[in-house]
Specification:
DNA polymerase, domain 1; 422 residues; Dna Ligase, domain 1; Alpha-Beta Plaits; five-stranded mixed sheet; alpha+beta
């Protein structure tokens, strides 16, 4: 028998995190906005009931916000990341291993717990998450990751399951799959869904019954494995070791358009510093850096410009100062006067483990620079990100993202810890 797998998913995650520290948000419609306070990316059940859709631009729903008293918040990623850590800590007693799939979803390997009532087991896990974090969850159970994912969706959408759907039962599995649109199956993209529809395959149940050879002919081994997983044959396991990353990016939209190169240099310097920090955190080095920036593509009447410059890194590096120098060269080559830049970013490619990087003849002793980067990371970890920065980054940062309605850092900054009066 395959090892049972569960997927636990936090409901309305960003909103639930905000409610954990601000009880005034409970029971009222709440939405959380994307970067620069642009669109709704998280909605409470009350907001969904009022017709707020995922991705609705906030300026188009102002009347609805005012009419219904919807609470609007900027994204607070520091809070959401810390709450994720707390959620994971609360499920550790209920799993052999786990794989963090996204900030609000975690796959759980239940090997060793097969002799228990697993539905009762995961319900106890949900209760512990709720006690420790106040965040409500749904859980899907299945013999494969795909079926656990489908079970989770069923648990979330259908109150019949009371937040836990067990797709190990073949009758329950068949009932769910016959009612699940093929385009909503994990791993089925829009193009594949259109091809399947042309063959008369519209549900997950019909995809399960697709001949394996036909699946491979149409969608290669990926679709073949998906069909097998829908039949209860696992093709993947819970990955407890994160696969090595092939690329990395740090990108941001500006709260205020940038029209001079000095300001853009400050922003790109910050992104390169952050990219170096991320590389070192994963024990990686990069061979190529690409810097890009562009105007607002959604304003066709305004002058449009975009630039992208790739810089080779010799030797391969994760040194933030070397990344800054490369990024600045890219900006200098791509800059043109007369445009209002609204977004920029850094992308790093060809990543390998730092200990495996090829050495060059003239790179010299790198020990001092390694120690400098370690000291920089230590200072910024202890006193807050960007406490120590190069002067070229600047200190005003007028271009930073808008977050006018951001909640306090309730769980990570001592000054923001809620105070309870006796």
């Amino acid at each position: 028998m395959p090892t049972p797998i569960a997927l636990i998913d936090c409901n309305n995650y960003y909103v639930s995190c905000e409610r954990a520290s601000d009880s005034k948000l409970i029971g009222v419609p709440v939405i959380v906005l994307s970067n620069n306070d642009g669109c709704a990316v998280a909605r409470s059940a009350e907001a969904k009931a009022l017709g707020i859709k995922m991705g609705d631009p906030v300026h188009l729903i102002r009347d609805k916000i005012e009419r219904h008293g919807i609470r609007v918040l900027s994204s607070n990623y520091t809070l959401y990341g810390d709450m994720q850590r707390r959620v994971v800590a609360s499920i550790e007693d209920y799993a052999r291993d786990f794989e963090i799939y996204s900030i609000d979803e975690t796959f759980i390997d239940l090997a060793g717990f097969e002799d228990r009532d697993l539905v009762a087991h995961v319900r106890a896990m949900r209760d512990q998450v709720l006690r420790w974090t106040t965040i409500p969850t749904c859980v899907g159970l299945g013999p494969t990751k795909t079926l656990a994912k489908l079970g989770n969706a069923a648990a979330k959408k259908n109150p019949l399951f009371d937040s836990v759907a067990d797709l190990r039962d073949e009758a329950v599995r068949a009932w769910v799959l016959d009612r699940f649109a093929v385009g909503d199956v994990w791993g089925v993209g829009g193009a594949t869904a259109a091809k399947l529809a042309a063959l008369g395959i519209h549900t997950a149940g019909q995809l399960r019954d697709m001949p394996i050879k036909q699946a491979r002919a149409m969608g290669s081994v990926v679709l073949e494995r998906l069909v097998a997983e829908l039949r209860g044959v696992p093709s993947g396991v819970v990955e407890t070791i994160e696969p090595q990353r092939k690329g990395m990016a740090v990108t941001r939209s500006f709260g205020t358009p940038v029209s001079d190169i000095a300001t853009l240099m400050g922003a790109v310097t910050q992104y390169a510093m952050r990219a170096g920090e991320k590389l070192r955190g994963h024990g990686l080095v990069a061979a190529r850096l690409t810097v890009f920036f562009h105007t607002n593509r959604f304003k066709p009447d305004a002058p449009q410009y975009s630039a992208s410059r790739m810089v080779a890194l010799h030797p391969m590096t994760n040194d933030s100062f070397e990344l800054v120098a490369a990024a600045r060269r890219g900006v200098e080559h791509g800059w043109r006067d007369g445009y209002a830049i609204t977004k920029a970013g850094i992308m790093l490619d060809d990543l390998i483990a730092a200990e495996l990087r090829p050495r060059t003849l003239f790179e010299g002793d790198t020990v001092k620079r390694v120690r400098l980067m370690e000291a920089l990371d230590s200072v910024n970890s202890r006193f807050g990100r960007f406490s120590a920065v190069p002067a070229t980054q600047g200190f005003q940062r007028d271009w930073k993202m808008r977050a006018d309605m951001k909640s306090p850092a309730w769980t990570t900054r001592i000054e923001d810890v809620p105070r309870v009066r006796a």
